[in-house]
Structure formats: structure tokens, C-alpha cells
Design a protein that fits this description.
It is built from 1 helix and 11 strands. It is mostly beta strands and 127 residues long.
């Protein structure tokens, strides 16, 4: 499955209370990196949709919570665990349409513009 195609997305499914963090970086015009997060107080399962912008070429995300967190690409059934810190974040790069890798983006995240609770991540309704 490919992420950066029309109608496809990267979905993160979590269990329990926590916060999903997203870093959008390597902007192809302004050079401004954006970091944000969305919290959930749901003790059950929550699903998040990662938001992408055509102005960024790289994205990294991680789950801050005690419960499990996995990602899936588009309508694919495969689920894989995601990172637990900026030092071992899950990352996807424009051009690598279906590869999520591990990256240390701590230095980039530390200097990024904070957009917590902005439209960087969406909680899927009823999750």
C-alpha cells in the first residue's frame, strides 16, 4: 500500500490514554518545521489519521502512552508498532510511498514550531 496517493492515509491505532506526536519537517519552501500532538483520554481504542501537507517532504510520529500503538497504511491489514520517542520515532519520507522507518529526529523536533492540538493529526470520530 502507498501513503502519498489520493484517498490513502496513514492510520495510527492506540489503546489507552496518551498522546500522539507528529513532526512535519523539511519544508520545500519556507523551511519552517512543525510539531504537534493530539491527546486522548479514551481508555479503549482510539484511531488517528496522520495529516500530510504537500509542502513537507518528511514526517515523524510517536506514541506517548502506556498502551500499545500501531500504524497501518491505507486500507492495508498489516499493523506495525510505532516509535515511543523522538529518538526512535516512526518516519516516512515523500517518495518512499510505503516505507515507514525509524529515525532520530529529536534535534529537529526541539526547534520546530509548536502547533499542538492544531490540524496536524485528526482523531477519527467514535474513537
Amino acid at each position: 500500500m502507498s501513503v502519498f496517493l489520493s484517498g490513502h492515509a496513514l492510520v495510527v491505532t492506540t489503546r489507552g490514554v496518551g498522546k500522539l506526536h507528529l513532526l512535519s519537517y523539511q519544508h520545500n519552501a519556507s523551511g519552517v518545521n512543525i510539531v504537534g500532538s493530539v491527546s486522548t483520554s479514551n481508555t479503549g481504542v482510539t484511531r488517528f489519521l496522520i495529516s500530510f501537507s504537500h509542502h513537507y517532504e518528511r514526517y515523524a510520529f510517536y506514541w506517548e502512552g502506556a498502551g500499545e500503538a500501531v500504524y497501518s497504511i491505507a486500507t492495508g491489514l498489516e499493523r506495525k508498532p510505532i516509535g515511543r520517542s523522538w529518538a526512535r520515532a516512526s518516519a516516512i519520507f515523500w517518495g518512499d510511498l510505503n516505507t515507514v522507518s525509524t529515525a532520530d529526529v529529536g534535534a529537529i523536533a526541539a526547534t520546530a514550531t509548536d502547533r499542538a492540538n492544531a490540524t496536524t493529526i485528526f482523531r477519527i470520530p467514535d474513537s
